[in-house]
């Protein structure tokens, strides 16, 4: 009877672990190990604990984007839902009157413009 109980507990444990792996709060698209952002001590993350390389995504971090808190762009736990166009995070003071290619005048280091052509 004890052996049967141990076997059932083992099967249940495997099932629970398997289900936990498929229930990622980050969605099905994130295929990296949890320890790229989290430690064994806590699920809490900080820039010091994150080893994730953002340059492997469709939006490489440059300029001021390198120093802001991740949650400013990633408002949900499904990180691939973050928008990559400037106006999804920044106010368009031109109200689309100069188009949507902000990089014609601005760069990721500063919104200030030194030379307007």
As a percent range, the share of strand residues is under 5%
Strand and helix order:
H
Gap between N and C termini = 84 Å
Helix content: 10-25%
Secondary structure tally: strands: 0
The radius of gyration is 22 Å
Largest sheet: none
- The general outline is elongated
Low-confidence stretches: none
- Count of alpha and pi helical runs: 1
What is the mean pLDDT?
81
Structural class by SSE content: mainly alpha
Describe the model.
By secondary structure, this protein is mostly helical. It has one helix and no strands. The chain is elongated and about 85 Å long. The model has no long low-confidence stretch (mean pLDDT 81).
Key terms for this structure?
single chain; 117 residues; mainly alpha; 1 helix; 0% strand
Secondary structure topology:
Layout lengths: L1 H21 L95
Summarize the structure.
The chain has 117 residues and is mainly alpha-helical. Helix content is 18%, strand content 0%. It contains one helix and no strands.
């Amino acid at each position: 009877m004890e052996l049967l109980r141990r076997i059932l507990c083992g099967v249940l444990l495997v099932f629970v672990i398997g289900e936990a792996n498929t229930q990622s709060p980050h969605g099905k698209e994130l295929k990296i190990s949890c320890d790229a952002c989290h430690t064994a001590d806590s699920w809490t993350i900080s820039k010091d604990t994150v080893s994730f390389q953002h340059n492997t995504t469709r939006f490489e971090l440059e300029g001021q984007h390198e120093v802001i808190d991740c949650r400013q762009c990633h408002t949900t736990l499904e990180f691939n839902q973050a928008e990559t166009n400037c106006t999804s995070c920044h106010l368009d003071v031109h109200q689309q009157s100069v188009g949507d290619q902000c990089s014609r005048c601005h760069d990721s280091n500063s919104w200030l413009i030194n030379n307007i052509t």
